[in-house]
Write a structure and sequence with these properties.
alpha+beta, Elongation Factor Tu (Ef-tu), domain 3, Alpha-Beta Plaits, 5 domains, eight-stranded antiparallel β-sheet, 19 helices, nucleotide-binding
Length: 800
């Protein structure tokens, strides 16, 4: 298996009370030390008897061949372990590279808390800012890593956290440096525990050596002074939000910051962390095995259990959801209903399809029949396992709040990412027990899939390889829904689209080397779209058959987030990830809330129209057959369906023809081509800034939005309130903070923000490296789709 796992953990099922469970994720910018920290957590928790190394390619959570060869995390990995009998931790290590943002998105959907890791040298980086915003509703703790590195700045990084991430903080510990009397060099060796008033030191040559020291106010005057100031600041911050703490401080501690008990501080800090008022901060150096045990303590002390987390977002607004101290979440007052979300699907070469699920309520059991409310089909669970990275541990059931994996041939083809699974907690075949089947329509609102922007062609090496290619592509998309497979109507070519060049490179590698497809991949191109510029409508009716559909198409400018969908006159439905939507106007004759007269359900009718719209839009526009983007399909309120119609396919065919007929009424100049516009962030040495900006504006059609000092506290992009809070926050001495205050602009690295067409950014990484001799770093994110001007349209079409 490549690593040793404690024998008992493979066979003994640990039963934890709900209060002890922690479903957490580790998020950060690439190379901040996520996987390195995870490896130390597993070692100190007794899950392994050796520490994996990213550079050696032998880590537990990065087990894919592509991950070990590149030294980066590509897919989120799940692992469960116990920490000192205090907490049962289900941990997900997520990727840091922007191309794999969907892995982060689906992990965040099922997490209750997060550990955000920062590189103490680099500070708050672009991907960290992005993921922080994505996880804004989830309680977090921060770990400032790599404190042993030259240029590490604890206080500078804390200031950036406050100002750039707009959060109040609480220093749980601060760095301790030993001083070499001969060389006068400082060496990071431990942390000062602010709450428990201790110094914790590690021997970097012995990962098991930890020395806890009581600080003496006379012998350790400098350290004790730091502790006293930090503790005073911590208590003052907590007191702003908790009047009970103020009373305890005055009455029981007599106003002495050093006498207030650690239990009182921890209780208050936990409560304020759970409601996202305060973010606890710790520090360490994971690679040197420093600071990891206090971090694990903080996970248990401050992050929520499954009964302290936010309620899941479900489609049934009339269902009551409440937390029970012993049973966990109860939905619709049904103690017997188990509800789980499938958030990840992978293919294992030995075990086949494996579906990761989070159980939100009830108990999921081996051999039970479950119901997929997304596909509306039942299936039987084979085996249940808990994953230790790539090593499964068979279990009999998953309780509320737990994360595990469905396996077995029965799940193949029956469940995908984002599906909601319902079962009876006690009866093997208890689906009939649910109230009038209404509970079988319950859905946890689906995982949002970002829009793919890069495309490659995929061709079978021979005609005989076509079937296996199509099966492999289907499996690839089941595992990673941020990939999309389409067929060019004009050329017949199969197209694979993804989030970036690296994303497609990894997908191609997996397609060939893991799934065994005999294919050839073309060069990376940009995913263009078309949209309509004007409204168009068609009515289709048949008196003898009893059909009537009046459908209009409208262009949608901007994001649907800008549009109010709250109306009792119409309902909105997404048509996938191309910013296309279906609007069903209310028809009083067929109101699903009143007596329903048709044999087909309202959902079946809507699903048929959704499917027909997607198919019609994929046929593309009239300029270059690019799929349609940012369009609205409106079904007017006079729609009519025969009472005796039984097959949704009849409605699908009629509505698809109406939509295509409506599109055909538009002429070519009533369509526009859309191109992806990216948000670009570049950190560059001042000496290289001029050549980088000239290259961006001349060769890449970039619009420069801002140029800032990357490390300048004064220019951090947050509001004045958090700037002021950061200036008032007590922080220990930090030479990098002092340098920031006195440095000239020429000495600080520069941060360039720009918007740039994606078609101009293919292979930009190599070019930037060449221009700056490797001294620059960039992150690129999809920002919007934008109409292509006529002078650029010919250039785009000629390049196809």
């Amino acid at each position: 298996m490549g690593f040793a796992v404690k024998v008992l953990s493979q066979f003994v099922r640990r039963h934890s009370t709900l209060e002890k469970i922690r479903n957490i994720g580790i998020i950060a910018h690439i190379d901040a030390g996520k996987t390195t920290t995870t490896e130390r957590m597993l070692y100190y928790a007794g899950k392994t008897d050796r520490i994996g190394n990213v550079d050696h390619g032998d880590t537990i959570t990065d087990f894919l061949p592509q991950e070990r060869s590149r030294g980066i995390t590509i897919q989120s990995a799940a692992i469960s372990f116990d920490w000192r009998n205090r907490g049962e931790i289900n941990l997900i290590d997520t990727p840091g590279h922007a191309d794999f943002s969907f892995e982060v998105i689906r992990a965040l959907k099922v997490l209750d808390g997060c550990v955000t890791i920062f590189d103490a040298v680099a500070g708050v980086e672009a991907q960290t800012e992005k993921v922080w915003k994505m996880s804004k509703q989830i309680p977090k703790i921060c770990f400032i890593n790599k404190m042993d590195r030259e240029g590490a700045g604890f206080s500078r990084t804390v200031k950036e956290i406050i100002m750039k991430l707009s959060t109040r903080i609480a220093l749980v510990n601060i760095p301790y440096f030993s001083l070499n009397p001969q060389t006068r060099e400082q060496k990071f060796e431990g942390v000062i525990d602010i709450i428990n008033k201790k110094l914790i030191k590690w021997d970097i040559n012995d990962p098991d050596s930890v020395n806890v020291v009581e600080l003496d106010p006379i012998k350790d005057k400098y350290l004790f002074d730091q502790l006293s100031k930090a503790r005073e600041s911590l208590i003052e911050t907590l007191s702003e939000f908790d009047d009970t703490l103020v009373e305890t401080f005055l009455e029981e501690a007599n106003g002495d910051y050093l006498k207030l008990s650690s239990s009182v501080i921890n209780r208050t800090l936990r409560n304020l962390t759970l409601d996202n008022t305060i973010t606890p901060i710790l520090c360490g150096a994971s690679f040197k095995n420093v600071g990891v045990q206090p971090l694990l303590d903080a996970v248990v002390d401050y992050l929520p259990s499954p009964i302290e987390t936010k309620l899941p977002d479900i489609n049934k607004k009339n269902f009551v959801m409440k937390f029970d101290h012993s049973k966990g979440l109860i939905i619709n007052n049904n103690n017997s209903m188990c509800v789980a979300l499938a958030f990840k699907v992978i293919t294992d070469p030995i075990r086949g399809l494996m579906v990761f699920v989070r159980v939100y309520s009830g108990t999921l059991k081996n051999g039970f029949t479950v119901y997929n409310t997304t596909t509306k089909k039942p299936f039987k669970i084979g085996k249940l396992v808990r994953m230790n990275a790539d090593v499964p541990e068979e279990i009999n059931h998953l309780n509320t709040g737990e994360i595990g994996v469905l396996t077995g041939s029965s799940i193949d083809g029956n469940v995908s990412t984002g599906d909601t699974i319902i079962s009876h907690s006690m009866k093997k075949d208890g689906l009939k027990s649910f109230k009038k089947n209404e509970e079988l329509t319950l859905k946890i609102n689906p995982i949002s899939v970002p829009e793919p922007v890069f495309t490659v062609t995929v061709e079978p090496k021979s005609l005989g390889n076509k079937d296996s290619m199509e099966k492999s592509l289907k499996r690839l998309v089941i595992e990673d829904p941020s990939l999309r497979v389409t067929v060019d109507e004009e050329t017949g070519q199969t197209l694979l689209s993804g989030m970036g060049e690296l994303h497609l490179e990894i997908a191609g590698d997996k397609l060939v080397n893991t799934l065994g497809a005999k294919v050839e991949l073309g060069k990376v191109t940009v995913s263009y779209k078309e949209t309509i510029n004007e409204n168009t409508s068609v009515e289709s009716y048949s008196d003898d058959k009893g059909y009537n559909f009046s459908i209009s198409l409208e262009p949608l400018d901007g994001s649907v987030k800008d549009i109010s969908k709250q109306s009792n006159k119409e309902m909105w439905y997404s048509l996938g990830s191309d910013n296309n939507y279906l609007i069903m106007e209310k028809n009083d004759k067929y109101d699903p809330e009143n007596e329903w007269l048709l044999q087909l359900t309202y959902d079946s009718i809507v699903n048929s129209i959704v499917s027909s719209s997607i198919v019609a839009f994929q046929k593309g526009g009239k300029i270059s057959n690019f799929p349609l983007h940012s369009c609205l399909v409106r079904v007017h309120s006079n729609w009519q369906v025969p009472i005796d119609v039984e097959k949704p396919s009849e409605i699908l065919e009629i509505t698809r023809n109406v939509i295509i007929k409506s599109l055909n009424k538009l002429v070519t100049n009533q369509y526009s081509v859309l191109q992806p516009i990216m948000s670009l962030n570049i950190d560059v040495d001042p000496n290289d800034m001029g050549v980088v900006i000239r290259d961006l504006t001349s060769d890449h059609d970039a619009i420069i939005l801002s140029i800032d000092d990357r490390d300048s506290v004064e220019k951090a992009e947050d509001n004045l309130l958090f700037n002021k809070i950061a200036e008032m926050q007590y922080l220990p001495d930090d030479v990098t903070l002092n340098l920031m205050k006195t440095s000239t602009g020429n000495e600080s690295s520069k941060h360039i923000k720009a918007e740039v067409p994606l078609r101009k950014m293919i292979a930009y990484n190599k070019k930037l490296r060449s221009l700056t001799q490797g001294r620059a770093d960039f992150q690129m994110y999809f920002e919007k789709m934008e109409r292509v001007t006529s002078d650029h349209l010919k250039e785009i079409i000629d390049d196809l």
